[in-house]
Design goal:
The protein is mostly helical. The protein has 4 helices and no strands.
Length: 94
């Protein structure tokens, strides 16, 4: 691996670090205070599955947040965008 490749990799890591911390931190918060996220979902369908949805989205946020730093790639970016789109109904419902 050449010096240019190392600087490119470091640049990607430092560029993605703030977003990574945001996603991973929010994902951890899903497990520490799930009731906070449950309050965002009162009008959404399938109320029996809301807690499961909070935990599943928390797992995805932590995994994608870490992946943004460990393996910054277009696939990880697209998956992160897909997660944001999937969570948008709950965020609009706030």
């Amino acid at each position: 691996m050449g010096l240019g490749s190392i600087f490119t990799l470091l640049g990607r890591i430092f560029a993605s670090a703030p977003l990574s911390l945001l996603f991973a931190g929010a994902g951890v918060q899903h497990f520490l205070d799930p009731d906070l996220f449950m309050t965002l979902m009162p009008g959404l369908p399938f109320p029996d599955l809301h807690l499961l949805a909070v935990y599943v989205s928390g797992v995805f946020e932590v995994v994608l947040g870490l992946a943004l730093v460990i393996y910054p790639s277009p696939a990880v970016c697209y998956a992160t965008i897909a997660l944001v789109v999937a969570m948008t109904p709950a965020n609009i419902n706030m």
